[in-house]
TrEMBL record:
Protein name according to UniProt: Flavodoxin family protein
Species per Swiss-Prot/TrEMBL record: Desulfosporosinus fructosivorans
MF GO annotations: oxidoreductase activity
Alphabetically ordered keywords of this record: Flavoprotein, FMN
Domain NADPH-dependent FMN reductase-like: 1-147
Pfam family, one: FMN_red
Keyword Flavoprotein attached: yes
Taxonomy, superkingdom: Bacteria
Length: 207
């Protein structure tokens, strides 16, 4: 069982990387083979809207790193997307990846039946995490994936999303910030549960 994480952060190795690694580590504990792909390491050109993918499962841009991503997406059983919130939305890198992967679903749905999930971090406490997460989850659904959330079915519900913030709160009119987003214990708990839910569903679907 393989789970591929794709990080849309423009800053490799920071909050979103740490969060994705945490989910992957828990997935590995549950028995999955894992890989983290940093979009900031790759050269992926913009979609030109040539619309050739309406008639074939192939992109007309031949000479960039989308081929590497395609290979990994097709080989994965689970796809985990991570993006920091940029303007209450995903980052440019994440959106560009989404646009360029249109050819994987529009003619034939090549990722159909895999398991998907998404995580996000933001600067502010209520900084647009839910909207950002929804953009990634809608994308995964449209690509034909079964999207899992971070609910622990055996416990009282604590959170419905795997999303965090650097901001912890406000005291004496001053904002209090964490050093990293994963100092948020609810984010840690929900992200680890997300990993367990992904692995569980992949196992069920493989039976
Ligand atoms: C261009 C830009 C836009 C941002 N927009 C928001 C925003 O709308 N809401 C928010 O809470 N944080 C926003 N942030 C803060 C980031 O979400 C936050 O710093 C995040 O933890 C960065 O993730 P990283 O450490 O993986 O880069 C923005 C940051 C940048 C650079």
């Amino acid at each position: 069982m393989k789970i591929l994480a794709i990080n849309g952060s423009h800053r490799k190795g920071r909050n979103t990387t740490t969060l994705l690694r945490m989910v992957l580590d828990e997935a590995a504990v549950q028995g999955a083979a894992t890989e983290l792909l940093e979009l900031s390491d790759l050269n992926i050109k913009f979609c030109t809207s040539c619309n050739k993918c309406l008639n074939r499962s192939q992109c007309s841009i031949p000479d960039d790193d989308m081929a590497i991503v395609e290979k990994k997406l097709l080989a994965a059983d689970g796809i985990l997307l991570g993006s920091p919130v940029y303007w209450v939305n995903v980052t440019t890198l994440m959106k560009n990846f989404m646009d360029r992967s249109r050819y994987l679903h529009i003619y034939k749905n090549l990722l159909d039946g895999k398991v998907g999930a998404a995580v996000t971090t933001a600067g502010l406490l209520y900084g647009g995490q839910e909207a950002t997460l929804k953009v990634m989850e809608y994308y995964l659904q449209l690509q034909g994936l079964h999207v899992v959330d971070s609910r622990d079915p055996n416990e009282v519900i604590k959170t419905v999303i795997a999303a965090g913030s650097l901001m912890e709160g406000v005291k004496d009119d001053k904002m209090i910030f964490r050093r990293t987003a994963i100092e948020d214990e609810l984010l840690v708990a929900s992200s680890k549960q997300l990993a367990r839910n992904m692995v569980k569903l992949i196992r069920q679907l493989k039976k």
